[in-house]
Design a protein that fits this description.
The protein is α/β, with parallel strands linked by helices. About 25% of the residues lie in helices and about 20% in strands. Bound molecules: ligand FHN. Ligand FHN binds next to loops.
Amino acid sequence: MFIHWGLYAIPAGEWEGARVPDIGEWIMYFARIPVADYEPLAQQFNPAKFDAAEWVSLAKQAGQKYIIITSKHHDGFCLFDSKLTDYDIVAATPFGRDPLKELAAECQRQGIKLGFYYSQTQDWHHPHGHGNDWDYVEEEKDFAGYIEHYVKPQVRELLSNYGPIAIIWFDTPMRITEEQSLALLEFCHQLQPDCLVSGRLGNALGDYGCTADNLIPSRPVSADWESPTTMNETWGYKKDDHDWKSTTVLIRKLVDIVSKGGNFLLNVGPKPDGTIPKPSVDRLLAIGEWLQVNGEAVYGTEPGPIQGESWCRSTTKGDKTFLHVFEWPSDGKVEISCPGLKVTSAYLLGDPPGAALPVTSNAGHVVVVGPDTAPDTSDTVVVLVTER
Ligand code: FHN
C-alpha cells in the first residue's frame, strides 16, 4: 500500500475557487502557491478520524505486504516529528500527533512491513530545496548544504526513531549528483542495514528498480522491481477525481506485474480528516477477497513459462504453473501452446476449489476443460501440475 497524505489533501485539487489540473499533491507547484499562502494550511490539518490500526488492518485485508507512506513529499511538509523544522505535523498542526509513530507501532503489532517515502531533491518549502522558483531563485540555492544539513539529518530521524524500516522510498532525483546519491545510499545502509533504498534515489543507485508511474513492462524483468500505481488519476486526494479503475482492472494489473516478476505498489490518497476514500476501500477489500482464494498463485511466485498472450498470464512455484485466465473461452476449453510444458493434472483455485479438470498434454499443447462460463470474471486461476 502506497499512501500519499499531506497538506495537499485539504485543497484537494482546488485553489482560490479554481480547479488545478493534474495530480493533487502537486497543487502548490501547478498553482505556483507562495510558501506564505500554502504554509498556513497546516493550521487546518486536524485529521481527527485518523486511526493507524484501521489503515494497517485495511492493508492486511487487501493482502498487501508492505506500506510506504509519504514522510515528506515535494511540498516539504513533514508528516513526522522532526527536530529540523517546525513545518511538521506535531509542531505546526492542531492535530499535534505523529502518525508515522502510530503507524510504526501498528505495523509492528499487526506484522506488516513499513517504509517511508521521502522527497530528497524537490522541496518547495525549504529555501535551498529544488523546485520552487516562484519564492526563491534557483541559482542562489545551496543544494549541497540542503542535502547535508537537512535531508541527511531527517533521514537519520526516520531511520532511528521508528523501529525497523523496510524501505526508504526516494523519488524524483533530478539534480542530485552521483556523489550525493551514493552518500545517501551508504548513510541509509549504515543506519539500517536491512532497509532497502528505492531505485529513485538517482544516478542508477538503489537496491531495486522502479518503473515509471502506472507503467508495466511488456516482458518479465529478472531484477527486483516494483510498479507504483494509482487507483484513479492522482496520488494525493483530489475531491473531483472520480476516474476509478475497476477492481477487475486492478486485479489484472497485480497479476500482470507478478507474472513479470515485480511488486505492485498500489496507492491510496487519504482525505484531510484521516479517512481513506470509500472507492479505494471497496477496491482494496475486493482485491483482498480475490487474494484469499488465489493468493497461492501470486505470493512468492516467479514469472511463468507462458508469456506474451493477451488473454492470460502465468506464474509458477515449485511443480505448479498457475494459468491466470482473463478471457475465459466460451466453450470452457482452455488451450495453451508452451514447448516443454508437461501437465499431469489440473484444477481451479476458485469455484469449485481443487476439483480435478480433464486435461490433455501432448508435445507442449495443453488442453484443460473447465466450466462454460468464467468462474471468476476478473481472473480465473487454473493450476497446472507439471512434471519436473
Ligand atoms: O512527483 C511524484 C508524484 O507526486 C508521486 O509521488 C509519484 C509516485 O510514484 N512519484 C513522483 C512522480 O513520478
